[in-house]
Write a structure and sequence with these properties.
Elements lengths: L2 H13 L2 H38 L5 E6 L16 H16 L3 H8 L4 E6 L6 E6 L5 E2 L3 E3 L7 E5 L10 E5 L11 H4 L3 E8 L5 E15 L11 E3 L1 H11 L10 E6 L5 H8 L3 E5 H44 L1 H9 L4 H30 L3 H8 L12 H18 L1 H8 L3 H6 L2
Parallel strand pairs: 5-10, 7-9
Antiparallel strand pairs: 1-11, 1-12, 2-11, 3-4, 3-8, 6-9, 7-10, 8-9
Length: 429
């Protein structure tokens, strides 16, 4: 008997017991729905994670910070010549434990594949920021934009996501308070920073003006966004050197090491990591993807339990079908139908059930993707973000897997059907 004829006959047999077929298929669809939803959530989560990482900066960048060593209990602090000196010595010792210095930068520069090392210059010397719109002075945080983080802009533009010397980025949250009508009207206007001088007792010694090049705003694709003024590394260096106490060594909270090629990041990071805390954009990606994968596996696990229950349902359904059709099986054998063809008949019936249940489940899961705008809005994500994404290959493999599972589940009942004695089967009423 031809395979196509067996498949068609299996379909006709299932139509004769529609109620049982639909109920068994629905049991499978529960697991298919849950696993399909897990696959879509995982795919969406990975795409969203990649968008965050891509916005986080240059993939050839390694962030470096001082490695804090555990204090040895047998080391005692030295006493200074006076209580004041002792206090200064203690403060300086504590600070040096947490910051990088010029020797550290030079050591990092010697690392193979490292092209440049840029320190995070402190902008603590900035006393205030004054807007050209209203002339008011504000005590605002000023930070140096060290990497090419792809911040979302409310207005203006940046070349390669970086401000040029003499340019400043202001947050959208500050636009109104700084006296500007809106973000667009702030572009090209001036922010003046009052800079202290350690040589003049920490008093404001000069003012430096910057042109507003862009207005950034909070974005769900940028990690750890904080509203603050952002300037170039060159300007931050000038401010630091002006306000810095020349008698004290240069100290930096962090530094960025630029590697010659993305493929060499891990190798350079391993070398730097021996003496410093070092991490790259890829480390962030791995951490986020790990969380996505754990959530996906947990959700898929619930679907797996539902499928396990449906396996027993298929086995039970097929056994009942064999018992109900004992005489029919005997007649088919008496008419010359081979035992293996009868076995195929029951396995194809199981396959049809698996296919129907899989299509129902993934179909319902696919409909849930229509809720992406609602999910995005509820979570406060950017418009157009999709956390449920259909991967046709994954969905196709899921349906094929469910069909294969159904065939395997129907194997034992089909074996029973093939072993029936035709004479004994025909005697069964």
């Amino acid at each position: 008997m031809r395979r196509i004829d067996i498949i068609k006959r299996a379909g006709r047999n299932l139509r004769q017991s529609k109620g049982r077929t639909i109920l068994t298929a629905l049991a499978i669809s529960v697991g298919a729905f849950t696993i399909g939803l897990a696959l879509m959530a995982g795919e969406g989560g990975r795409l969203y994670t990649n968008s965050i990482v891509d916005a986080a900066g240059d993939k050839k960048v390694i962030m470096v910070a001082k490695k804090i060593e555990a204090e040895k209990k047998d080391q005692l602090p030295e006493y200074g010549n006076s209580e004041q000196d002792a206090g200064k010595n203690k403060e300086s010792a504590i600070r040096s434990k947490y910051v990088l210095n010029d020797k550290d930068l030079e050591k990092i520069r010697q690392t193979p594949h490292v092209k440049t090392v840029t320190p995070a210059y402190s902008t603590d010397g900035v006393a205030y920021a004054k807007s050209s719109a209203n002339g008011k002075k504000f005590a605002l945080t000023v930070a140096v934009k060290m990497d090419r983080t792809r911040a979302e802009l409310a207005a203006g533009s940046l070349e390669d996501f970086m401000p040029k010397p003499g340019e400043i980025i202001i947050p959208d949250d500050y636009v109104k308070q700084l006296g500007f009508k809106d973000a667009q009207s702030a572009i090209g206007q001036t922010i003046t920073l009052g800079v202290r001088s350690a040589a003049q007792g920490g008093n404001v010694a000069k003012e430096v003006s910057f042109k507003i090049a862009a207005v950034d705003k909070k974005s769900d694709t940028v990690l750890f966004y904080e509203p603050m003024l952002r300037i170039s590394t060159a300007d931050a260096k000038a401010i630091y050197e002006f306000s810095h106490d020349k008698s004290q060594p240069h100290q930096y909270s962090t530094a960025i090491a630029m590697v010659d090629d993305e493929s060499n990041v891990d190798a350079a990071k391993d070398v730097i990591g021996k003496d410093y805390n070092a991490y790259s954009i890829q480390d962030i990606r791995k951490a986020l993807l790990t969380m996505v994968n754990v959530a996906q596996v947990a959700l898929a696990g619930f679907g797996g339990l539902a499928l396990l229950a449906s396996v027993f349902g298929i086995v039970n359904t097929m056994y009942i079908s064999v018992l109900e059709r004992t005489s029919q099986i005997g007649l088919m054998k008496a008419l010359g139908m081979r035992g293996r063809d009868i076995g195929k008949l029951f396995r194809y019936e199981a396959a049809w059930v698996g296919l129907l249940g899989g299509l129902i489940g993934v179909g319902l899961a696919s409909l849930v993707t229509l809720l992406n705008p609602v999910i995005t809005s509820t979570l406060g994500l950017s418009a157009g973000t999709s956390l449920l994404v259909i991967n046709p290959l994954q969905i196709g493999l899921l349906v094929i897997g469910l069909v294969a599972m159904a065939i395997i589940s129907g194997w034992l009942p089909s074996r029973k059907a093939t072993k029936l004695d035709p004479i004994e089967a025909l005697r069964t009423e």
